[in-house]
Design goal:
177 residues; three-stranded antiparallel sheet; disordered C terminus; 35% helix; single chain; alpha+beta
């Protein structure tokens, strides 16, 4: 493993342990050349998955790109990092164990949207707005209608119309204290 700081090729493993979800081995490494410390993760890869993009181009599946996309959607949201890791690992395992050598980018996008919908509604809307290339506010309204029970929550609960009180001109009306 090359050192990310100096490029040295002889790094030493100082500590190894399973990750929280048990799907990876976390290794703490040190470089003897520059004394830099860094962490690597070793994961099982069931098979090579190729992503078929909308343009027709075929690229290898990149777990890190999936992670970055989900991180962008979840930016500044209070979601436990362990839950995010479980989501990314779950999607990756689903793709690898599906038995298909190729998967469309649309299928990956739908898996991410389904995962985010269960994790955080705001992240779901953020991801969907980019993934589905929203162009106008109506697109957001339609998507919001699919959240929770399928209905939009009104800004104020419906109720009887109440006429506003006349503006006070500095005097109190009789009978009020």
């Amino acid at each position: 493993m090359r050192c990310p700081y100096c490029g040295g090729s002889e790094t030493q493993v100082k500590d190894s342990r399973p990750s929280e979800d048990g799907a990876a081995i976390r290794r703490r490494r040190v470089c003897p050349d520059c004394a830099g410390r860094f962490t690597t993760f070793e994961r099982v890869q069931l098979r090579e998955v190729v992503v078929l993009k909308r343009s027709g181009k075929r690229v290898p599946f990149d777990r890190d790109k999936l992670q970055r996309s989900i991180d962008v959607a979840l930016r500044k949201r209070a979601v436990d990092p362990e839950r995010i890791e479980r989501l990314v690992s779950g999607i990756t395992r689903q793709l690898e164990s599906a038995g298909e050598p190729e998967v469309t980018s649309e299928a990956i996008g739908e898996l991410v949207m389904a995962g985010l919908k269960g994790l955080d509604d705001v992240a779901y809307v953020r991801f969907a707005s980019v993934y589905k290339n929203f162009r106008e506010a109506k697109d957001f309204e339609d998507l919001l209608g699919t959240l929770s029970d399928g209905t939009l929550v009104p800004a104020a609960p419906p109720g009887p119309e109440v006429e506003p009180e006349p503006e006070a001109s500095g005097r109190r009306r009789a009978g009020r204290s």
